[in-house]
Structure formats: C-alpha cells, structure tokens
Amino acid sequence: MTTKTPQQSRTIMTDLVLPSETNPLNNLFGGELLARMDRAASIAARRHSRRIVVTASVNHVAFNRAVPLGSVVTVEAKVSRAFKTSMEVFIDVWIEDRESGERTKANEAIYTFVAVDETGRPIAVPQVEPESDLEKERFAAALRRKQLSLLLAGKMKPQDATELKALFE
Ligand SMILES: CC(C)(COP(=O)(O)OP(=O)(O)OC[C@H]1O[C@@H](n2cnc3c(N)ncnc32)[C@H](O)[C@@H]1OP(=O)(O)O)[C@@H](O)C(=O)NCCC(=O)NCCS
What we know:
Elements: E1 11-16, H1 30-49, E2 52-62, E3 72-82, E4 86-96, E5 103-116, H2 133-152, H3 162-167
Antiparallel strand pairs: 1-3, 2-5, 3-4, 4-5
C-alpha cells in the first residue's frame, strides 16, 4: 500500500462564529468547536485512507484561548501517523485578526479515526511519511499517545504500554 505524507490529507475549514454557537460570555461553545474539529479531522482521515472512517477517540483537546463571537476560525487537520487500521489526526485551530489578517493559534486537538469497510469492520490504511520537523515530532510521539488512549479506554494492559513505561525508566 502506498505511503502518504501528512500534506496529502491536509484539510482546512474556515468559518465564522455566529451568535447561536456561543456561550453566555459570547465565546464559541466548546461542543461546537469539537464538532468542527471532528468534521475536518474525518475528512483528513478519509483523504488519507480513501475509506469510510469513524471517530474512535478524542485523545486530547486544549481550549487554550476563548474564540469570540464574530471570529474567523480556521481548523486545519492532518493525519500525523497511521497504524494498522487507525489514524491519528492532529488538529490546529487558528483565529484571524480582522484588521491585520494575522493568524493566532487558539486551540489544538488530537483525534483517532479507524477506517472501516461497508460492514463497519476495521480495514488496513496506508502508512504516513512525515516531512517537516513538526510532522516528524508528531509522528514520533503518536505511538505513545495511542498506547495512552488504549490504556484509558481499558483496551490495553499497563504492562503492554511499552512507550509509556519507557518514559519513567
Ligand atoms: C472504532 C471501532 C471501529 C474500533 O473497533 P474495535 O472492535 O475496537 O476494533 P479493533 O480492536 O480492531 O481496533 C481497531 C483499531 O482502532 C484502535 N482503537 C480502538 N479504540 C481506540 C481508542 N480508544 N484509542 C485509540 N485507538 C483505538 C485500535 O488500536 C486499532 O488500531 P490499529 O488497527 O491501527 O492497531 C469501533 O469501536 C466502532 O465502530 N466504534 C464506534 C465509532 C463511532 O460510531 N464513532 C462516532 C461516535 S458518535
């Protein structure tokens, strides 16, 4: 199966924050941002695998900055690493200054998607060949994050989490 670069799955979605999508402080509602990230990430996973994909887990979300009403929000998703049937997707969220057009990183998240066949059974996906330094960094840490996610989901025994054990040795 042909290897693909993160760039080949890159998905960018830009949209406004409307009043119906905000909390009482007039900032973007967290669940709305999670949904936007899920949509962009699922398209990235689909572009990488060219298969039906399902969200298996949300491994990490950091709401570092509030996103005010009226903001232009850009969600950028790329597959950072693929395993057998699962793909880690890294999502960066940017907001754009109205006057200068300058982009500021607001949030980030990491989702795991699984490629499935028409009956919902997991199916193999192409591997990832990272190119930039950041892509290589994210690729290298992905196995550790996969093991942590499986451990938290009760799908892996602590003694099998080799990457996590290595952190404390
Ligand atoms: C995701 C799903 C296909 C996994 O099925 P499963 O029976 O656990 O299948 P497997 O054990 O073969 O796991 C498939 C892959 O998912 C990975 N995986 C499963 N759960 C995971 C988790 N919580 N975190 C990270 N990876 C996970 C496995 O490690 C495996 O990866 P690999 O093949 O790359 O090594 C299945 O749980 C499912 O269909 N869930 C519902 C998905 C859905 O509807 N999402 C939207 C929610 S509204």
